[in-house]
Amino acid sequence: MLIVKKFGGSSVADKDRIFNVANRCVEEYRRGNDVVVVLSAMGDSTDHLLELAQSVNPDAPKREMDMLLTTGEQVSVSLMAMALDALGVPAISLNAFQVAMHTTSTYSNARLKRIDTERIQNELESRKIVIITGFQGINKFDDYTTLGRGGSDTTAVALAAALQADACEIYTDVDGVYTADPRVVKDAKKLSEITYDEMLELATLGAKVLHNRSVELAKKYGVQLVVRSSLNKEEGTIVKEDTTVEKMLISGVAADKNATRISLIGLKDEPGVAFKVFNLLAKHHINVDLILQSIGRDGTKDITFTVESNMAKEAMDALKNQQSMLKFNEISCKENVAKVSIVGAGMATNPGVAAKMFEALYNCGVNIKMISTSEIRVTVLINEKDVDLAMQAIHDAFGLGTTK
Amino acid sequence: MLIVKKFGGSSVADKDRIFNVANRCVEEYRRGNDVVVVLSAMGDSTDHLLELAQSVNPDAPKREMDMLLTTGEQVSVSLMAMALDALGVPAISLNAFQVAMHTTSTYSNARLKRIDTERIQNELESRKIVIITGFQGINKFDDYTTLGRGGSDTTAVALAAALQADACEIYTDVDGVYTADPRVVKDAKKLSEITYDEMLELATLGAKVLHNRSVELAKKYGVQLVVRSSLNKEEGTIVKEDTTVEKMLISGVAADKNATRISLIGLKDEPGVAFKVFNLLAKHHINVDLILQSIGRDGTKDITFTVESNMAKEAMDALKNQQSMLKFNEISCKENVAKVSIVGAGMATNPGVAAKMFEALYNCGVNIKMISTSEIRVTVLINEKDVDLAMQAIHDAFGLGTTK
């Protein structure tokens, strides 16, 4: 069996944790399996690099930021190879050049295009544990790129697909996927299985266990994921196409506090308006989340959407600069909002789920600012300060604390 | 004009020093010149990485050590590119993969074989300052290698040769090459010019301004070097084939305290003995310095040599393990010895230079343990504690404090 194991930065933050990971890899190796390990940068080392860069040039070229940040994973993988050597197991570390890990050209937010597997396979054939830098790639200019948030998860899934691995295990600091954030909702329960689609909705909405791009990729290539803790041997949560357990009405409640709402008021009610707005934002590499379009006054329309808070200024500037082209009357920005969502594959065939969620919010006095739904998800935008209250209320209303 | 500038780790140790270097590069660039910058890792960052490695595996594989250490220069070059960007000058950083910088396979002590100049030339043509990681290369396995001590100097000289640069400037924390270490000999004078051969002898002997491999390479390809300070605008010392000033009897006095003497007593007096001893040490990548062979008792011979102190244990172990093959009676090791040398191209045609040096040492009561000479150098091995006294005495005896 070929197993891909991914460990995040906190799992390799110091010597003891590095050896903890190394020992888990050795156990797998001693079972006779081939082991590929994907690592993030150690603990807060990326933050240190960001501070350094910030002190030199607060508006540094992204190409050079990636050149700087990719050193972080290279440190992790080489130390892990040394730890495995100390444990008497042959190992080799590889960076994005050595693999090679081809991506699109966009610095700081590249997408994986193709992974050369020859070097990895050769090293596996000589019975080495192969340790690969997560988060990074190289583009057609032979420059380093980074994959953006959750990039190491994506690296792991892409490697599992390219190598046709038998399993892809994502190790985090939680035991698996819960019905809600256990730090907020005390009686949250761990799920033994979840579908890609449910996970995708939860990931997009900020459950912070797996990044959506990695889940999308896993779904696309049918890579079965296991999310589990690097600190204990609990079973974790399996993410796959169809769960064998009966579809639950609701799998979980998720919140994302990192949102800012932007509204364009008084756009012309003519074809192509939404295209122009979101094409402009896409050109600035700004990801837009919830979108809501409504009829405005006097034959105009309004478009409201949310973006990650750290992209809000760039989005506002881009839109203001193009006010004459986009022809809107007003633009407004509301910070400190949060998305709260319920997700469940069983929702599609059960009416009244959204209503039950709204009732729970009404009962605890939380005002809803926006609503967005999909087949298996209902999301509301509320004030950030109400998030914890709202999550507990919804969790209770659906009886998630008592489900297994 | 194309200028290669090399700055050591202390020159890029923090934000202010990075901008100091960046400003000097911008001055050169604004004169209309093409600028290639070679950097070492920031300040003590290499030491931090070594500590990390040491804590994980005190006997880490060298391949992984190089994988770890090469991150240091990558951090420097990306930050320098950011600093230049902040100063409004286009710049790009390149690592050993991106250049590419081909070396032999030996990890931790590789030698440069070939530098691809295409990428660098393309970047220079688009009027960018090109910043290149010193000290590192890649081998035929597509793995990182490092060039050993003084590696960044070697990178700079090799780049100057490959790019047919008009000048190669090595910036250090001293103003240039002195007749003796100014910290030891108060009236030491800076030399305006020195030949490759003199510099080579001085470098080998521990003058610590330029590493010998970089000078060898400069001599081989006729790259004229300038050694100058990164902290002031003094003229520095030019290192070239022939100096225009009259050949001085003695250019300088150098000391190297980092030596251990090893003696093999009672070797058989037959052909191949020296070959076997030094071939064994070469296989362990142990550089041997002074070698002295003398007739021992009863038809045997003794071989005495010096090694860098940090290699002494490995050398002793290697020799002891092969005692039966090498057939020596005894082996002994003397630590805390030092080499003191005088160097001068004029020495070859002037008799009595060595005698004058020995007289100076006799007059101040310093005992000589070994003597070794070349065409332009006389070296003595003395007790480490006598070094400063010996240097000043020799410097005075040759009147170096009054020469220009």
Structure description:
The structure is a homodimer of 404-residue chains. In chain A, 35% of the residues lie in helices and 28% in strands. Chain A has 404 residues and is α/β, with parallel strands linked by helices. Chain A folds into 2 domains: 171 residues, Carbamate kinase (3-Layer(aba) Sandwich); 150 residues, VC0802-like (2-Layer Sandwich), CATH 3.30.2130.10. In chain A, the strands form 4 sheets. Chain A has an 8-stranded mixed β-sheet, sandwiched between helices. In chain A, a hairpin with an 8-residue loop joins strand 4 and strand 5. The longest helix of chain A is centred in the first third of the chain and has 25 residues. Chain A starts with a strand and ends in a 7-residue tail after the last helix. At the A-B interface, helix 1, helix 2 and helix 3 of A face helix 1, helix 2 and helix 3 of B.
Which keywords apply here?
13 helices; homodimer; globular; 404 residues; eight-stranded mixed β-sheet; six-stranded antiparallel β-sheet; Carbamate kinase; alpha/beta; VC0802-like
- Ends distance of chain A: 30 Å
Q: What's the Cα radius of gyration of chain A?
A: 22 Å
What share of residues of chain A is helical?
A: 25-40%
Count the beta strands of chain A.
18
**Which architecture of the largest domain in chain A does the CATH hierarchy give at level 2?**
3-Layer(aba) Sandwich
Q: Which protein chains are joined by the largest interface, and how many residues does each one contribute?
A: A-B, 37 and 37 residues
Total tally of structural domains of chain A: 2
Q: CATH homologous superfamily of the largest domain in chain A? A: Acetylglutamate kinase-like
Strand content of chain A: 25-35%
**Oligomeric description of these chains:** homodimer
CATH topology of the largest domain in chain A: Carbamate kinase
- The overall average pLDDT of chain A, rounded, is 90
Low-confidence stretches of chain A: none
